[in-house]
């Protein structure tokens, strides 16, 4: 049963804001079986540690699938009627799309198009990255533009949107 | 008619948060004629593209006036009774004041002093830039101090203040 | 009398968001005698100016104690029944702990353990620093991880949590 979750939820927050833990708590009561779509890749020790600590916290009942680039395809292939999905996180997906020189608009539109047909609720986690000083380098500026556009698209489709700071959720929509 | 807008509104948000589009939607129903006070200068291709995309979205009914430095003067000279004003954005104005080595306190006080006498409502858009790591360089630190002080002054005078993230407004005041 | 303040309050905000002034206004009506625990050190002119302007604004009735590293100890030693405490700010404390190569988890747990036994209410001010682009350097990334973890811990214990932007408080808890 996953009746407590609306079809699409977006959880935005800063670094170490508790956004992933909050999103997990949204998903866990919804079903005994959950799908974790991980966009992060363990490319260095810092990232490996971060992934391990997330895995340790999540505990049992989660099936993990890596989807660093083909996120829409992984959603469609793996979502099941009684298995709500947690996608963590959209900003790492944007990073991977940029590194892979993918067409970001095509990827964003593909993700948005896949959402209405999914048989299970999906919760997206993402970093808000646009509230600091304008970055010096153009790639970082492009990254935060892409992330901001994607957040607007997903928030527009989402039934519920939360902003998390210091572990506390603020409901922005729903 | 511009009866739906209060005298002064401040719309704060991050990069690509949808703050300008939200502010435009506040202003557009208020009158068939609107004034757009642009503080940005097209000094490179990135900025030129940004300005073009904003102009394309705004569509008809807007008169655009450039006010990179003399913002209070442009407000007083161009505001008309049936023409609400959108100022986009305060952070670029702060940048221009710093580049021009203007006295920022004098400029801020001049802007605040001009507001009560305006014949039309005005909506300010600005970037919140103080929620990242402390910048390495002193100019960036000074910039975010100036921007923060200006936001506090305008928010103190404003009837309504919104914080926009992922295209969603959160009312902070009003 | 300090009956108006709950035992623990956290005030989060960006640079120049007005968070310190807001926190002072929470504390000042609670008692004619107040304790100001300053974690900042006047190590350069910029910091000296910032400290002076904070001191000038606070005015009378405040006793200032410096607690750059031993914050829990200073709280326990100086808190009195009729003297509410303002700690400004946690992010500078984290900086000092890192510079002093202290064990941050031990320090965080020590602070949290000290809170329930205090005879007076305490208000913590801290900078939210996790909402910008991921910093290039590892120390800055570690800093924002530490700050984020501490904010979650204090927010979890706090009775009231505020997020301040442009001088305006948004209640996140309480």
Would you kindly provide a written description of the structure presented here, covering whatever features stand out?
By secondary structure, chain A is α/β, with parallel strands linked by helices. The first copy, chain A, is built from six helices and seven strands, in the order E-H-E-H-E-H-E-H-H-E-H-E-E. Chain A has helices spanning 19-27, 45-58, 71-78, 90-99, 104-114, 138-157; strands at 8-13, 34-38, 62-66, 85-88, 122-127, 160-165, 168-173. The first copy, chain A, has a seven-stranded mixed beta sheet with strand order 3-2-4-5-1-6-7, sandwiched between helices. Chain A is globular.
The structure class of chain A reads: alpha/beta
Most strands sheet of chain A:
7 strands, mixed
> Quick one: CATH class of chain A?
Alpha Beta
Oligomer: homotrimer
Q: Which of globular, elongated, flat, extended, rod-shaped describes the shape of chain A?
A: globular
Q: Which stretches of chain A are poorly predicted, pLDDT < 50 over at least 5 residues?
A: none
Q: What is the radius of gyration of chain A?
A: 15 Å
Biggest sheet: strand arrangement of chain A: 3-2-4-5-1-6-7
Query: What is the tally of helical segments of chain A?
Result: 6
Count the domains of chain A: 1
CATH topology of chain A: Rossmann fold
| Greatest interface | A-B, 27 and 22 residues
Element pattern of chain A in H and E: EHEHEHEHHEHEE
Could you state the CATH homologous superfamily of chain A? P-loop containing nucleotide triphosphate hydrolases
Count the E strands of chain A: 7
């Amino acid at each position: 049963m996953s009746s407590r979750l609306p079809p699409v939820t977006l959880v935005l927050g800063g670094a170490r804001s508790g956004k992933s833990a909050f999103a997990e708590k949204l998903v866990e009561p919804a079903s005994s079986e959950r799908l974790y779509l991980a966009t992060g890749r363990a490319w260095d020790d810092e990232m490996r540690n971060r992934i391990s600590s997330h895995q340790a916290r999540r505990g049992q009942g989660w099936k993990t699938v890596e989807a660093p680039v083909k996120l829409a395809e992984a959603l469609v292939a793996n979502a099941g009627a009684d298995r709500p999905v947690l996608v963590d996180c959209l900003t790492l997906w944007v990073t991977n799309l940029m590194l892979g020189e993918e067409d970001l608009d095509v990827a964003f539109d593909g993700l948005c198009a896949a959402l209405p047909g999914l048989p299970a609720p999906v919760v997206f986690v993402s970093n808000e990255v646009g509230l600091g000083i304008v970055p010096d380098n153009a790639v970082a500026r492009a990254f935060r533009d892409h992330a901001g556009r994607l957040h607007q698209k997903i928030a527009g489709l989402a039934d519920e949107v939360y902003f998390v700071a210091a572990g506390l959720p603020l409901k922005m929509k729903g």
